[in-house]
Amino acid sequence: MEYSSVNTIWVLLGAALVFFMQAGFAMCEAGFTRAKNTGNILMKNLMDFCIGTPCFWLVGFGVMFGAGTAVFGKLDPLILGDYSHILPGGVPQWAFVIFQTVFCATSATIVSGSMAERTKFSAYCIYSACISLFLYPISGHWIWGGGWLSELGFHDFAGSTAVHMVGGVCACVGAAMLGPRLGKYDAEGKPQAILGHNLSIAALGVFILWFCWFGFNGCSTVAMDSDAAMISAGLVFFNTNMAAAVACVTTLIFTWLRYGKPDVSMTFNAALAGLVGITAGCDMVSPVGAAIIGIVCGFLIVLSVEFFDKVVKIDDPVGAISVHGVCGATGTILTGLLATDGGLLYGGGFHFLGVQLLGVASVAAYTAVVIFLVFTVIKKTIGLRCTPEEEIEGLDISEHGLASAYADWVPATSMVLNGTDADAVPASTVAEEPAPARPDGTKMTKLTIVCSQNRFEALKAAMSQIGVTGMTVTQVMGCGVQKGKTEFYRGIPVNMNLLPKLKVDIVVSTVSPQAVIAAAKSALYTGRPGDGKIFQYDVERVVRIRTGETNVAALADEA
Q1: H/E/C letters for each residue in 353-368?
Q2: Under a CB-based contact definition with an 8 Å cutoff, are residues 251 and 305 in contact?
Q3: Could you tell me which of 48, 276, 307, 474 has the fewest CB atoms within 10 Å of its CB?
Q4: Can you give the pTM of this predicted structure?
Q5: How far apart are CA 32 and CA 483, in angstroms?
């Protein structure tokens, strides 16, 4: 084969840009989830690429591109066979292999966001390997490796279905099998907002992904050595940008009308929705078609997120199911309508649209069945979900011994669980003393409770049970006489002398201080260092500033 320098450089540039999408996904997922899981999120996004690379080398590439049957390529460990039948013109084999490897890793990393904050790290590593070993390569063979869908004329230029919908379906099945995060739904099943901890990081992730998508789509032309290739690449770049931008504008307006204010996180998700939607047909639609795909995805992302959140109650912290699964399928189908050569709206008839529908349905069904079996095996063996205690504490500390992903920074305390964590890990019934009212109602007592952040919701629920509703909560750093818990950083013992804590101040008059102490001990006790301390003080005077009321009257609930 005569190699082309420009084609090779173009493919390698695309591989580098698609690789850097891992950083974008990591930032998005970390920003849209809570700080106590940041290290775990970053570790998963690193490892799905690092695990996927040897898995694709050993098994996946041969299965995907080997000259086998219409359903399955061939087993070719170490990629020793001849793939000249599939190589783009002028591109060396290993340049093509690395280009396809980074696409495989993208499919695997999509699953991380929807299953974030409650998945065992060991389970994640296993199912990530399965996606790269056989799940993604088999459906990829159907579409890109000369399989039965490609023979029918199915068109998925850069992977709306092959990459994104496969990842989105895996994400949907996994999130459904895991169940929602603790506190996501109240007793009546109403969804509760669990805010991400860093919108700036999430926004940076979106911009990185948008930038890298020019390589994801644009470099999928795999050639730049002819006028036709250059014209095609220019159109792909333009359509990619158009769909993302129009999707953002659409979601901005739609959420403004729907919620009364433009939704920031939803609009950022819309950029990704538009990018996913245009990926299948970016080479076949006109800029008008790209704008239409952007409009459809802009509306769809909002409605889809609400549907999964409120109707089917599948907890997806970052919206990966809607962005990648729903918009990936939609973009592929819309290609059958809007393609200037063969699309239904351009006089091409129903055949092409039918093939697109068949491809989406068959790949979705195959992916759902296989990943369900993978998750079921994991669930029945090592387990898929972490314990409630580990989830409340955060996967950073429980899975990785990492007190915080942000050195010298105290993560914000989640205030959205409304006692649901306490339902999952209930405080023991207070048995030391009931909560009697004081006869004269004159004595006032202040109790300062220093406790671990991850036990605050249990403490709040316990206080509510005995009639204490007023409290002041402060984030502090500190340790007891044991000088903090020892963990390891890069194999070196770290004495975390100052640990993130909460200081909860409560002033009571009609509730017995002993009842408060007993309830707090019951809620906070784990038996491990760091459970905290309780300090009791007499209060001389209390003044309500607005009314001038003093003492017990100042502490009483207002009518």
Answers
A1: HHHHHHHHHHHHHHHH
A2: no
A3: 474
A4: 0.81
A5: 33
